[in-house]
Design a protein that fits this description.
Blueprint lengths: L4 E7 L3 E8 L5 E7 L2 H11 L5 E6 L6 H8 L3 E5 L14 H14 L10 H33 L13 H9 L5 H34 L1 H11 L6 H11 L8 H8 L3 E3 L8 E4 L5 H11 L18 H23 L4 H21 L3
Parallel strand pairs: 1-4, 4-5
Antiparallel strand pairs: 1-2, 2-3, 6-7
Length: 360
C-alpha cells in the first residue's frame, strides 16, 4: 500500500519525538509529545494529514503497546525490525533526526516490520523468556560451584556427574580445611538449589497453562512429535513464533532465528561466513539445544497422541531419520561437533516449519 503520510516515532519512556512526512509534497510536521499514546492519537487526528496514514517506530524495550493502541483506533502502525534497517551514514543524530529518518524509510519502503502479538500472546512470551532467564541463572550458578571446586583443588568422585542427589548429600556434609571455604561452598550450593526450585515452579506454571488451553496444547503436540522437542522447546516455539504462516518458507524461518550463514560474495566468488545471529536469540539457543540430542544414537519412538494427525506423526519420523543420518554424515566428514550441531539446528528449522503449516 502506498501511504500519503508516513509518521516516524522515536519512542522513549517519557516522550515521543514525532515527524510526519507527506510523501506527495515532501512537507513535514514535527512535534514533541509525552509518552501517552492518547496524545499522539489526538495530534494525528487534529493535524488532518492526507490519508492513508501509517506510523512506525523501532522495536525495543517499550514493547508493542503503542502499536496496539494505534491499531485499535484505525491507524496503521509498523514496528520496525532494527537489525533490518539500512545502515546510516549521516553525521548528525538526535531524536528529531531519528524520527524523520524513520518516516522517510517507511515512505521509501525500506523498513521490515516485525509481528505484533496480542496481549495474550505477549504474556505467554514473557513466561517463556522468564524460563530462559532462570535456566541461564542456573547454568551460571553451577559454573560457580565447579569453579570453586577447581580453585580449592577439591575433587568429587562418587558419581560421574555433578548436581545429582548423591552430589548434594556429599556437598552438605563436606568440610573444607578452612571454615570460610565451607561457608562459601554451602552458600553457592544453596544458590543452585534455590534457582532449581524457581525453575520447577515456572515449568509447573507452564504445564498448568497448557492444561487450561486446549488450542495451545494441540499446537504444541505437533512439535512434541519431533525427536528432541520437549515441553519447553514446544512452548517456546508457539510463544515466540505463534503464526508460522507469516514466513514464506523454512529458510525464512531459519533466517528469523538467525541460523543462516552470512555471505560476502561478488562475481563468481562465493564466500559464506559465520551465522548472522540477527534473529531471535532466545529461540536460537533453544533449537540448538534440541539439535544436540542427535549427536548420540537413539531409537525413534512412535507417538500416539490423539491431538496429532497421522500425517504429522509420519513427517516427524521422517525428520528424525533424516537428521540422524545427517549427523552421522557430518561426523564422518570430520566436521567439528559444535558446527555440526548448528547445521542440524538449521535443518531442524525447515522441518519444524513444514510440520507447523501442514494442513490436515
Amino acid at each position: 500500500m502506498r501511504y500519503c503520510t508516513t509518521i516516524g516515532i522515536d519512542t522513549h519512556v517519557k516522550k515521543n519525538e514525532v515527524c510526519a512526512l507527506n510523501t506527495q509534497t515532501g512537507e513535514k510536521a514535527t512535534a514533541t509529545l509525552s509518552g501517552d499514546p492518547n496524545q499522539l492519537i489526538s495530534w494525528i487526528e487534529k493535524s488532518g494529514f492526507s490519508e492513508p496514514v501509517c506510523c512506525c517506530y523501532e522495536a525495543g524495550p517499550l514493547g508493542f503497546g503503542l502499536a496496539r493502541d494505534l491499531s485499535a483506533v484505525g491507524i496503521d502502525c509498523v514496528v520496525v525490525a532494527t537489525s533490518k534497517l539500512p545502515q546510516r551514514i549521516d553525521r548528525k543524530k538526535n531524536d528529531r533526526v531519528d524520527a524523520e529518518w524513520l518516516s522517510r524509510m517507511l515512505a521509501a519502503g525500506s523498513v521490515r516490520s516485525v509481528y505484533v502479538p496480542s496481549k495474550e500472546e505477549e504474556s505467554l512470551c514473557h513466561l517463556s523468556r522468564l524460563r530462559g532467564e532462570v535456566a541461564s541463572d542456573l547454568r551460571r550458578a553451577k559454573q560457580r560451584v565447579g569453579a570453586f571446586l577447581l580453585l580449592t583443588k577439591t575433587s568429587y568422585t562418587l558419581t560421574k556427574k555433578r548436581f545429582t542427589k548423591t552430589f548434594y548429600r556429599w556437598a552438605e556434609s563436606y568440610e573444607f580445611e578452612l571454615p570460610a571455604d565451607t561457608f562459601v561452598f554451602r552458600h553457592k550450593i544453596n544458590a543452585v538449589l534455590r534457582i532449581e526450585e524457581r525453575l520447577l515452579q515456572i515449568e509447573n506454571e507452564i504445564e498448568h497453562l497448557i492444561g487450561k488451553n486446549p488450542v495451545l496444547a494441540a499446537r504444541m503436540a505437533r512439535f512434541r512429535c519431533i525427536h528432541g522437542v520437549g515441553l519447553v522447546t514446544a512452548f517456546t516455539l508457539v510463544c515466540e513464533v505463534y503464526d508460522f504462516g507469516r514466513f514464506r518458507n523454512g529458510s525464512a524461518f531459519a533466517s528469523f532465528v538467525g541460523l543462516v550463514p552470512s555471505e560476502n560474495s561478488s562475481g563468481q566468488r562465493v564466500a559464506n561466513g559465520r551465522l548472522t545471529k540477527t534473529g531471535n536469540s532466545h529461540l536460537r539457543r533453544i533449537l540448538i539445544e534440541a539439535a544436540n540430542c542427535y549427536s548420540k544414537p537413539f531409537k525413534i519412538a512412535k507417538t500416539e497422541n490423539v491431538l496429532v494427525p497421522e500425517i504429522v506423526r509420519i513427517k516427524a519420523e521422517k525428520c528424525a531419520n533424516r537428521l540422524r543420518k545427517r549427523r552421522v554424515a557430518l561426523k564422518e566428514r570430520g566436521i567439528m561437533p559444535n558446527k555440526a550441531k548448528v547445521a542440524i539446528a538449521r535443518e531442524l528449522c525447515e522441518w519444524i516449519y513444514h510440520i507447523a503449516v501442514m494442513s490436515t
